[in-house]
Amino acid sequence: MNLFIETFIGGLLAGTMYSLVAIGFVLIYKASGVFNFAQGSILLFSALTFVTLKESGIPFVVAVGITIGVLIVGAIAIERLLLRPLANRSPMTLFMATLGLSYIVEGLAQGLMGAQVHPLDLGIEDVPIFIGGVLISQFDVVAAITALVLVAILALLFNKTRIGISLRAVADDTRAALSIGINLNRIWQIVWAVAGIVGLVAGMLWGARQGVQFSLSLVVLKALPVLIIGGFTSIGGAIAGGLIVGAAENLAETYIGPFIGGGITPWFAYFLALAFLYVRPAGLFGELAIERV
Amino acid sequence: MTLDVSREYDVQPLWLADRKIGWGVPLLLVLTFVVIPLLGNEYWLNAIFVPFLILSLAGIGLNLLTGYAGQTSLGSGGFMAVGAFATFSLVTHVKFISLPPALFLAGLIAGLVGLVFGIPSGRIKGFYLMVSSLAAQFFLEWVFQKFPWFYNYGSSGTISLPRLDIFGFNGGSSIGRYYLTLVIVVALTWVAANLVRSHVGRNWMAIRDMDTAAAVIGIPVDRYKILAFAVSSFYLGIAGALWAFAYLGAASVQSFGIARSFQIIFIIIIGGMGSITGNFIGAAFISLLPLALDYTVQSIFSGHVDAGLLQNIQKAIFGFLIIWFLIKEPDGIARLVKTFGERLSAWPLRF
User: Fold this and answer.
1) Does an H or E element contain A185, and which?
2) Which residues of A95-126 are buried (b: 16+ CB within 10 A; e: fewer)?
3) Burial classification of residue B177, based on how many CB atoms lie within 10 Å of its CB (0-12 exposed, 13-18 middle, 19 or more buried)
4) B204 CB contacts (<8 Å, ≥6 apart)?
5) Mean per-residue pLDDT over chain B, rounded
6) Is B148 on the interface with A (CB under 8 A)?
7) CB proximity under 8 Å: A 182-201 to B
8) Hey, is the C-beta of B289 within 8 angstroms of any chain A C-beta?
9) N or C end of chain B: smaller count of CB under 10 Å?
């Protein structure tokens, strides 16, 4: 039973990482209807920028500040050069454009800052601790707390600030938002920048665990089943989806894996998502769309 | 009052009236079957034409699914792997089977696997459906890595054929591999070009444009979606087998990773969605651009550029081109070529 609880909690904590990546997706999807495939490469880019700055001796806070500055500039450039010319095109076209964007961002990130693995030390010790007889990774706990804090900040941003309220207006009804004078382009810039910052946090945590390297950008593929299970439009759903995927993956690897050869985590999440889709085609928290001809 | 229908309509059967083959197709056939093998050396045949043809075939496979039937797939690499490993198993375990029938059977097996992963398309669509293709990609990669039976218990997990047996002849020479690829690609292109003009292709396009409307006018949407998956995987499977044995010689599952899937998506975006010719243009573009870029950069900086850096520059350029094409010419180079041809035929008038 202890093994079960340990696996379960370990999975949940690892799942918060997935949630962090998925939140970045949901933000952009809500505000602009774009399924942003480049979220993973933006995550890699921001983590790589941060690590490179830190390695050249710049203090932590300044490095974070500069990286956020770069992300804001990047968000403005993306809005100007990609979203504006492609406005009103089909969601699939926009998705493929972000696929192209991910190649540009990856090429730039690795071309400018090198493709080698950068170790990242955030000063969190990764020693397992005992809580009530159950072994838990301290790092995971810190990551989960960070995720919680981030979500709290985002919730404040969305509910209490002027920007957040106009952002929700855009997500609710883009046309109505435009007609009352909300600057849609500005909202897109802000939301891409915020998603970039969420990506930076996720990238720093993932990077501290497995080194900042190319494989970080592949996290994006894992976020897809998370989004499917949680729904594309709900931050709460993204968190729940991440936790479900993390826990289920860990449990499956421990309990089903040994019977079929092990190493099933690369694909298990997708089958889980498919199983969910068979029961609820719009995800757990998504709304079922009614179609008209 | 009765109408005499036969007077109103042209009685000539459509298949006789509508057969106008321009000079372009025969010219291309002569060029590819006679001129290129005569002029090309081994490097050009094996390192450029063979991969170009195979990528075009894979492009057709994905284009049937995405460009014609409108179903996005990120699992092309996985289906290519099925074709490659199925061919290997057939040739290894079945005595006296020659390569062409083995390829065909492997294509059918890949088609069957595609059919299975296409079943969710009846219930889910769009981004949600991408999950199904990603499931296929990662699951198939895992299967071909985890179970040694698929690579005949070899130590390195790679598959290769001792000889390319084409009905008793050894097709292992560079000319042999070129012709093997060429014949298969030409035949399957012909099939695809006819398929998309048949009722099947028209139903696919109706589903692509709006599946609810297609269902309303009586097209069995689910069946045709699944059929698109099966046919697409059949093409991809054969392309994968050719990639493994006619081009690489020895392949492992790493040759068919997610990067391969993206490469094939890029081929159809750059070449043109919903176009058969576009796949060839896209494949040519994607296989020649790295060479051209390499040549240019090396000659400008006289060989001081690191290979890794070059690869990243190439990546960024591909990304830029994808976005540029999506903004400026969503129908790809195929449309650019067509427009250019139409303008040329009206020359010197403007329209």
Assistant:
1) helix A184-210
2) bbbbbbbbbbbbbbbbbebeeeebebeeebee
3) buried
4) B64, B68, B69, B70, B196, B224, B228
5) 86
6) no
7) none
8) no
9) N
Nearest C-alpha neighbor of A250 from the set A46, A26, A1, A10? A10
Least Cα distance to B328 among A81, A192, A106 occurs for A81
Residue A39 CB partners (closer than 8 Å, separation 6+): A21, A24, A25, A28, A195, A199, A220, A223
Q: How many CB atoms lie within 10 A of CB A50?
A: 25
Instruction: For chain B, give every domain's residue range.
Output: 40-152+160-346
Cβ-based neighbour number of residue A280 at 10 Å: 14
pLDDT-derived band at B5 (thresholds 50, 70, 90) equals very low
DSSP state of B44: I
Interatomic CA distance for residues B85 and B123, integer angstroms: 30
**CB-based contact, B321 to chain A, within 8 Å:** yes
pLDDT bracket for residue B8 (50, 70, 90): very low
User: For tokens 């010790």, what's the residue?
Assistant: A125
- Three-class HEC string of A44-110: HHHHHHHHHHHHCCCCHHHHHHHHHHHHHHHHHHHHHHHHCCCCCCCHHHHHHHHHHHHHHHHHHHH
Q: What is the CATH number of domain B40-152+160-346?
A: 1.10.3470
Six-digit token string for A204: 């720093």
Does A101 contact chain B (CB < 8 Å)?
yes
- Give B133→chain A minimum CA distance, Å: 9
Confirm if B229 and B121 have CB atoms less than 8 A apart: yes
Q: Where are the domains of chain A?
A: 2-216
Contact B319 A107 (CB under 8 A): yes
Burial class (CB in 10 A: 0-12, 13-18, 19+), B77: buried
pLDDT at A225 over 50: yes
The pLDDT value given to residue B117: 92
Q: Which residues of B touch A277 (CB under 8 A)?
A: 120, 123-124, 128, 131
Pick B45 or B56 by higher pLDDT. B56
- Which residues are paired to A212 by β-bridges? A118
Chain A interface, best mutation among B270, B310, B322, B328, by max A CB count within 10 A = B322
State the average pLDDT over residues B262-284: 91
ipTM for this prediction: 0.84
B156 DSSP 8-state letter: S
CA B235 – CA B187 distance, rounded (Å): 11
Angle, CA B306 vertex, CA B301 and CA B310 arms, to 5°: 85
Closest-CA residue of B relative to A230 is: B128
- Determine contact, residues A250/A203, Cβ cutoff 8 Å: no
Cβ contacts of B15 within 8 Å, gap of 6 or more: none
